[in-house]
């Protein structure tokens, strides 16, 4: 079942899932971008204060996956898409993504690591297309607040409703 998360009540679980699932990036993303924990509690709190709304996928009262959505002017950003390591490859990420796409009234953009081939394949399988480096660089500076090094090592994918705004 997919429901909006109560970020106060579910905060520790969201934090746990993000840091459990993000271990997949270790050794894949540039070493200077990796840290443990991958996302600190302060970073998660900041994301929530900045408008990231988390949705959760639950089975038997256990949260197995979380995904954030952030409405920014003329686009919707999918943020922090994570499924517990023990629950991967069961369609949970796809169900969360589809649910959040349906919540969006604007084109959807997703940023991820350039070397995270499994993530890129996942989003392409769900109808997103990889944008050019030029467009990626422009969009990351408009809609995200990330260091220049992360811009260099990231990509952006767009929904089929995206038209080089």
Automatic annotation (TrEMBL):
InterPro entries: Acyl_CoA_acyltransferase, GNAT_dom. PROSITE patterns: GNAT (PS51186). Residues 1-149 form the N-acetyltransferase domain. Keywords: Acyltransferase, Transferase. PANTHER family: PEPTIDYL-LYSINE N-ACETYLTRANSFERASE YJAB. This is GNAT family N-acetyltransferase.
């Amino acid at each position: 079942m997919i429901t909006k998360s109560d970020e106060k009540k579910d905060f520790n679980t969201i934090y746990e899932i993000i840091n459990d699932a993000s271990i997949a990036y270790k050794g894949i993303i540039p070493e200077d971008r990796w840290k443990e924990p991958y996302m600190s509690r302060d970073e998660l709190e900041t994301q929530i204060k900045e408008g990231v709304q988390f949705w959760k996928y639950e089975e038997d009262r256990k949260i197995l996956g979380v995904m954030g959505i952030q409405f920014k002017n003329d686009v919707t950003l999918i943020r922090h898409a994570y499924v517990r390591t023990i629950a991967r490859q069961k369609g949970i990420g796809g169900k969360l993504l589809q649910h959040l796409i349906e919540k969006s009234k604007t084109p959807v953009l997703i940023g991820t690591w350039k070397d995270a081939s499994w993530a890129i394949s996942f989003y392409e399988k769900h109808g997103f297309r990889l944008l050019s480096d030029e467009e990626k660089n422009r969009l990351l500076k408009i809609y995200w607040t990330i260091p220049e090094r992360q811009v260099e090592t990231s990509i952006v994918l767009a929904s089929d409703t995206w038209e080089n705004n």
